[in-house]
Structures are given as structure tokens and as C-alpha cells.
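Hey, resending since the last one bounced:
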Amino acid sequence: MTLRGDFHMHTYYSFDCANTPEALVRRCKQVGLNCIAVTDHNSIEGSRAVSKIADFTVILGEEVMSTSGEITGLFLQEQIEPGLSPIDTAKRIKEQGALVSVPHPFAGSGRSSLAKGAVLEILDYVDIIEGFNARTMSHATTDTGRAFADEHGLIRTAVSDAHTLRELGATYTEFPEFDGTPEGFKQALTEASLTEHPAGKFVHVYSTLNKVRRKFWGPPKSPQA
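The C-alpha cells again:
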């Protein structure tokens, strides 16, 4: 069986997203995603909520804000606190037996991305780099990230970084089934094929609107079980 994966997406546990866990699961099933990682900003609660209701594979993740930009942990057991240095963030992820992924590489401070120097500092801990992030608008930036991954022998993934439901399903990583372990996941990704479609010019506007909506009305409510 081939898995269709997306390893960077958000729920309303992120400050700039309004997706409920229930709606996210429905959308993933509609578009054929059957192995996902939910990577909310500085929170693992979205992953936990989705994993409780999904009938497909959910990798517990978190997009952690370090002092120099964001770093993603995959296969986490516990939340990683924000505000640590990149090297300490990466070490905390590894202490849980989890994987370190570099999100939207070199996309600039506006997206809280690590600069190349910071990635080089944590290189010994990095397992994966997002070779294609659908929300990265610059082709040159994407090419730089791919070249960096190839130069350093890093696994590349294609992810949506979805903050809205409609973004799910266009960009994904197809790869063979794995044994459920982080190392098995990495091995399976060496045989992956990437499907890449830019999310469009206005997706970051939706994130901004979600921030405003959250400020005045709070997060949406999930339906009662």
C-alpha cells in the first residue's frame, strides 16, 4: 500500500488557523491523505486531538519557535517549549527519539524560518528538510532549500503547511508503508515521490485574518463528541 502523506499542517491550536480537528480529519479523508503530521505552533495538542479521532496514521508533531526561527519535531511524545536556541530545540526533539525537520527553509524572517547558518549549526541533528513548502512563494527560495538538502544528503518532503482546509490535498508526499517508527519512516521516505503545487498568492492573507478573528472572537469550537 502506498501512503499519501503531508507532514506540515495546522489546527486551531495554532494562533493563525481556524481548522477544527474534526474538519481537518474529514478533509484529509476527502483528498486521500492517509498519513499526516499535525504541527501546530508551539503546541502538540492539535496532534493529540486529531490522533484520537482519525482512522489513519497521525504523527505527533509540533512547529517549535526557537530563538532563531522554527524547527519541526515529528514523532514527539511531549511538547517542546518555545524560546530555546536552535541547538537546544533540536536536542530536546532528539531526546524523545523524534525526528527534526526544517520547515520552509530559508524563506526569511517573515515566515520565522531558520537562516542557512542556523541550519548548519544544527545539521548533525536534522533528519528532514521541506524540499517543497506550498506556502513558499519564491521559486528561488525553494530551489535553495532543495540544493541544500541534496548537498547534505537530507531527506526531502513536499508539504502543504495548510492553515485552511482547501490547501490540503494538492501537495503531498507518496511513500511506501512503514513500521510506525521514526527510523522506519525515514527509510520509507527515501523511496518517496513528491507532488508539488503552490498554494497561491493569498493564503497568507487567510492566516492574518485568522489572527484577527482569534483576537476578537477566540478559537472556533469543536462539535461535542
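The two ends are 31 Å apart (CA to CA).

Sorry for the duplicate.
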